[in-house]
Amino acid sequence: MSEMNVAVVCGGVGAARLLRGFVGLVEPDRLTAIANVGDDMVLHGLHISPDLDTIVYTLAEAVSAERGWGLEGETWQAMEMIARYSETVSGGESADDSAWDLDWFSLGDRDLGTHLFRTQAILAGASLDQVTAQIAKTWGLDLRLLPVTNDRLRTMVTTPDHGEITFQEYFVGHQHSIPVSAVRFDGAESTTPAPGVVEALENADRIVVAPSNPAVSIDPVLAVPGIRELLERRREDVVVVSPIVGGKALKGPADRLLVELGREASVVGVAEWYADVVGTVVIDDVDADHAAAIEALGLKAVVTNTIMSSPDITRALAETTLS
Amino acid sequence: MSEMNVAVVCGGVGAARLLRGFVGLVEPDRLTAIANVGDDMVLHGLHISPDLDTIVYTLAEAVSAERGWGLEGETWQAMEMIARYSETVSGGESADDSAWDLDWFSLGDRDLGTHLFRTQAILAGASLDQVTAQIAKTWGLDLRLLPVTNDRLRTMVTTPDHGEITFQEYFVGHQHSIPVSAVRFDGAESTTPAPGVVEALENADRIVVAPSNPAVSIDPVLAVPGIRELLERRREDVVVVSPIVGGKALKGPADRLLVELGREASVVGVAEWYADVVGTVVIDDVDADHAAAIEALGLKAVVTNTIMSSPDITRALAETTLS
């Protein structure tokens, strides 16, 4: 087991998969995952933290293999009831139906238990990092999982068609199928890093930026005051695994977002995006031809298999980021 | 079908059962149920209205026959998850475990759908009476169901052993097994009746007080400014069905509460309790001997079968309250 201290800057699905490679490779008390909270929302009164939950459920091997998010063995009784109510309303005389439009975001019954626990703990005065620690402990996670901040930070997406909307309205409500002209992190300037975040990044022998969406999953982490500056200072120890392979995002809209926000959808675009905060880009074998262009930007390029299709490949990718 | 306008002042289970007798007897637009909201609470961030839901589920014939509350066909996936989290916490180093004690109040997955719908609608600006109307419509209820107020009103119970606690902590948390020395309706003085409540009571040819707990289910309704005075003024048209039969409450702690709060656990105690606001007490056949004592207090006594063990008996009881 490695004696290195490792901090991983995380979004959701891609980060959770990479973290699987670090668990068992790095000692649990030396491995810290620092997660995006820009996707968080209050829905039906519940505090929902999609990226934290995706990491927990994935590392607990409890994530639904079929859906790739949420829990296995899930049922949908609460949602079916909400859909019944919503149907009454949308067929009714309510003046403003949107206020009652409640079933656009799927919440499984088991998953609801997590949201209910988190919400009640926060209402009782617990901080997000405290309740996250309890959730991680319940699921037996072999690492330290921290939200980047305990404070309110919301990723807002400007769309030419619908104006500025929340990340979840964009990602789930519109299934990330509409153009984006800008991204903003509402409240970020007033946040402070959660306890342990700065220490984990300062003490890390290696800081890994997960193959998550740069614009809407990693940038909100960097938007917490002090984090971007810390990574700039430690740039030589920061490694990103490219979320773009062969010009495409493995999942989600990262490729389109890079283009819409003025970069190219390639590992070079990723390197340009992260040039100030990252010293090394890990790219897939299919992108080997781009290594020279990345090095011309002043970053190192490491070529390996980045498609985490098996535990062995995932482990090898994690090892590569530490070498 | 009766041409009378009828308003029923309601708690939960007992009221819901009596309402079954009025549905089909009184025209839907002439029948108004005015429900207690003193049991309402915010739990896990959700707005829960136990008496409103008991009335809806019972009249929709969807209430669990086995439990007498909540929905049939219910599952408990969310609660099982909350219990897992709570177990981690109570076995852990958390300083204040009570803040994390989350699984004392059972919430079924289907029932959660109702709470989620209500909470989101209220957060979106709907009032409790508006969302209640949508819920009642969804379940096809043949009456108008109103919360007595849209404002925050909380029944607080003073217990010598645990100080002042919320109604749900007393009723569910302690399973109403501890002594009570006082009851208070927090916030009542700042409430106003929900739209339609005063009109329904003013226009009613008969006001029926359901066989609910006088101290903790009906008194909070009367605590909304104006309601008690209205019933005092219309006392001759107000009929209560005694929740005490043969000196016992059919369900719950009404008999003990009457004694703890200075009355006797009998139909005479009920008559004394309601003497200012009720003109007639409907008592069970087993209490026929007490009719004279009730009339000596200046109230009429009507003797009939009040144990709603069949639809026919329930219907006959409802007819008696209107005669």
What is the structural class of chain A?
alpha/beta
What is the highest CATH level, the class of the domain at 6-41 and 149-322 in chain A? Alpha Beta
The CATH homology group name of the domain at 6-41 and 149-322 in chain A:
CofD-like domains
What percent of the residues of chain A sit in helical stretches (DSSP H or I)?
25-40%
CATH architecture of the domain at 6-41 and 149-322 in chain A: 3-Layer(aba) Sandwich
By oligomeric state, this entry counts as homodimer
Number of helices of chain A: 13
Q: Largest beta sheet of chain A, briefly?
A: 7 strands, parallel
List low-pLDDT spans of chain A: 92-97
The percent range for strand residues of chain A is: 15-25%
**What is the residue-averaged pLDDT of chain A?**
94
CATH topology of the domain at 6-41 and 149-322 in chain A: Rossmann fold
Biggest sheet, spatial arrangement of strands of chain A: 5-2-1-9-10-13-14
**DSSP E strands of chain A, number:** 14
Radius of gyration of chain A: 19 Å
Q: Biggest interface: chains and residue counts? A: A-B, 45 and 45 residues
Write the H/E string of chain A, N to C: EHEEEHHHHEEEHEHEHHEEEHHEHEH
Q: Which word captures the global form of chain A?
A: globular
Distance between the termini of chain A: 14 Å
Outline:
The first copy, chain A, is an alpha/beta fold and 323 residues long. Chain A is 38% helix and 18% strand.
